[in-house]
């Protein structure tokens, strides 16, 4: 998968929007104002994972703790192409679901989720 592919997967999710809070070269995908995936200027991708997935992915070496976001259980792939497209798409959908689950009922209702 490439940067555009990540964008297609993210924007196909309900309520997802693309913003550039860190500059035009960083793509931040958000739902309800909260980020769930970010593609960096150098082509790496970071995304939110569950506590268990964070431990499994970082301890196995499949992903590394995301710079600045590891404390919030985000992982990073320095190269988007490091994983098969289907696996990455599954993790993107999971990241979206985790963030949606943290939104208030009112916010979910406003987004139609």
Structure description:
By secondary structure, the chain is of the alpha+beta class. It has one domain (3-111): Aspartate Aminotransferase, domain 1 (Alpha-Beta Complex). The chain is built from 4 helices and 6 strands, in the order αββββαββαα. It has helices at 3-11, 51-60, 85-102, 105-111, and strands at residues 16-19, 27-31, 34-39, 45-48, 64-65, 74-77. Strands 1-2-3-4-6-5 form a 6-stranded antiparallel β-sheet, covered by helices on one side. Strand 3 and strand 4 (45-48) form a beta hairpin. The chain is globular. The model has no long low-confidence stretch (mean pLDDT 93).
Write the layout of secondary structure elements.
Layout: H1 3-11, E1 16-19, E2 27-31, E3 34-39, E4 45-48, H2 51-60, E5 64-65, E6 74-77, H3 85-102, H4 105-111
Antiparallel strand pairs: 1-2, 2-3, 3-4, 4-6, 5-6
Secondary-structure content class: alpha+beta
State the major sheet: 6 strands, antiparallel
- Number of helices in the DSSP assignment: 4
DSSP strand content: 15-25%
Spatial separation of the terminal alpha carbons: 27 Å
Low-confidence stretches: none
Roughly what is the average pLDDT, rounded to an integer?
Answer: 93
Keywords: DNA-binding
GO molecular function: DNA binding
Protein name: DNA-binding protein (MmcQ/YjbR family)
Organism: Brevundimonas faecalis
């Amino acid at each position: 998968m490439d940067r555009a592919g990540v964008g297609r997967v993210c924007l196909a999710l309900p309520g997802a929007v693309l913003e550039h809070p860190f500059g035009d070269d960083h793509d931040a995908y958000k739902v309800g104002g909260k980020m769930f995936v970010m593609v960096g200027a150098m082509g790496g991708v970071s995304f939110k994972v569950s506590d268990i997935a964070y431990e499994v992915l970082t301890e196995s070496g499949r992903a590394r703790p995301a710079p600045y976001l590891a404390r919030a259980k985000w992982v990073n792939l320095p190269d988007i192409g490091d994983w098969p497209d289907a696996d990455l798409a599954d993790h993107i959908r999971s990241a979206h679901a985790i963030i949606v689950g943290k939104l208030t009922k009112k916010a979910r209702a406003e987004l139609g989720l």
